[in-house]
Amino acid sequence: MAYKILCPSIMCADFGNFRAEITEMDAAGIDQYHMDIMDGEFVPNFALSWADFAAVRKMTSKPMDVHLMVKFPSVHLPYAFKNGADIIYVHYESGNAANYLYEIKANGRKAGLAINPETKIEEVKNLFPLIDTLLVMRVKPGFAGQAAVPEVEKKLDFLTNMPNRKFSIRLDGCVSPDVISKWSARGIEEFVCGTASEMFGKKRGLRSYKEIVEKLR
Ligand code: DX5
Ligand code: ZN
Fold first, then answer.
1. Where are the beta strands (DSSP E) in 87-164?
2. What CATH number does residue 58 fall under?
3. What is the pTM of this model?
4. To bridge 39 with a disulfide, which of 70, 78, 101, 198 should be the other Cys (CB 3.0-4.6 Å)?
5. Which residues are registered as beta bridge partners of 8?
6. Could you tell me which residues are beta bridge partners of residue 135?
7. In this model, does residue 119 exceed pLDDT 70?
8. pLDDT band at 31 (very low <50, low <70, confident <90, very high)
9. Nearest CA to ligand 1 atom 12
10. What's the total number of domains in the chain?
11. Is 86 an active-site residue?
12. Beta strands in the chain (DSSP E)
């Protein structure tokens, strides 16, 4: 079985208890932290702030990504560099993605491209040589707890059958334990774990992060 990169979505964690949350997740063997930053314009919501990012950065030595769901990535990139983001995702739909991807690489970080459920591979494939990871949204970005957009499955079929793929694929949104086993068996490497993964929210029940991580592995 291929190794799965499990990335808890910190916007789903207990905001009043970040230190305890991160300490327990680190010990449970999670791989990377997924940090959602929104501006209320690109998506109609707000999630983590750069102050939250900086606070979590001091609590862990694991890699941290940042998923920029913002209208103006140029405003946020300096914060991502300054605060030690290891992988930075810009949305294709924000525009000018190629410029941002070059800037991210020039600053020594991994470059990620995020795509909305309705965005077609045809539109973004010329950017593939510039990226380390493609973040495929299974839901409209902005909110946890949504149902998956069914059309995304076809896109994933196409991507997992691409010959000589040089970038990794990360799934974000409604990533359930079943989705993780199905797509990991078909070559997808990375998974953002929100409420659907059962790591957070009601479905977690009283289980520890260690139990959840063991189940998802
Ligand atoms: C949504 C965020 C996700 C979200 C996923 O815009 O990018 O990271 O937290 O969580 P669930 O599993 O609830 O869809
Ligand atoms: Zn995200």
1. 87-91, 110-115, 133-137
2. 3.20.20.70
3. 0.97
4. 70
5. 193
6. 114, 170
7. yes
8. very high
9. 194
10. 1
11. no
12. 5-8, 33-38, 64-69, 87-91, 110-115, 133-137, 168-172, 190-193
Domain that holds residue 110: 5-216
Tell me the CA–centroid distance for residue 193 and ligand 2, in Å: 9
Provide the residues around ligand 2 (an ion) whose CB is within 5 A: 36, 67, 172
C-alpha dihedral (114, 115, 120, 125), degrees to nearest 10: -10
The token pair at 193 is: 């774990």
Sign of CA dihedral 35, 200, 24, 28: negative
Q: What stretches of 63-144 show up as alpha helix (H) in DSSP?
A: 73-82, 97-106, 121-124
Task: Give pLDDT, residue 1.
Answer: 66
Compute the distance between CA of residue 12 and CA of residue 172 in angstroms, rounded to an integer: 13
One-letter amino acid identity for 134? L
Atom of ligand 1 nearest to the CA of 145: 13
